[in-house]
Amino acid sequence: MTLTLGSQASPFDLPGVDGRKHSLDEYDEAPALAVIWSCNHCPYVQAWEGRMTQIASDYAELGARVVAINSNDATSHPGDSFEEMKTRAEREGFSFDYLHDEDQSVAQAYGPSRTPEVFLFDRERKLRYHGAIDDSRDDQAVVENYFRDALDAVLDGREPPVSETPPVGCSVKWR
Amino acid sequence: MKIELLYWEGCPSHPEADELLQSVLAARGLQATIERHEVMTQQEAERLRFPGSPTIRVDGRDVDPEGARSPPALNCRIYYLSDGRVSPVPSREQLEEALA
Asked: Which ipTM value was assigned to this complex?
């Protein structure tokens, strides 16, 4: 079941491509925390990940943090293995933490269905926005910047103008 | 002309590919029938040499011969646009070239 708006962020403690473990508590100081379900192999993720990197960089200056989690089953999708995650993060210069949820327990707690799929939490770690990054995988055709608008709102202590959109992307690859 | 659209329901890109294909056919005034086939298992993907969804073949030839070399899999397929960007569907130009 997918987290509903207003729900509390579920704890996690996962290995990152930087060789460290990252827990929810680590981001306590951030006034906004985005957890994005992601992976390597999906063309939708690849189309959006440049924007993910840009958003993470832009909003880091304001204290917000972006974390990407890959929960895909690497047995059926070897391109989504932890080793491949490290390779991709280095090659693409990710500006966000990229974590591996090998046993899929964190995905079970949050309930994503697609990659990419955004869960944006406020300072109290209540879910304020859930869904797509924006309204087009084609970066030249974007009209609505849902995620950026929601980040601006959360950082200002306002309700996001749009709180939920249908995520568009590849299905999460469950075991 | 035989046109096949092979897809896997787990990837949301095939309606867009179908629509694009119909648009290119209409623009060229071609009256071809699109044979749509849902690939449901990895075994079927291997038998059909299905490198991901969507896969479009014109007279048996993949519209993206380079991408067709990927291993058979129930995946979303990656296409590269002429400017290097990634897309889950072939470009209009790829389809036009394949149908020329």
From this structure: 0.88
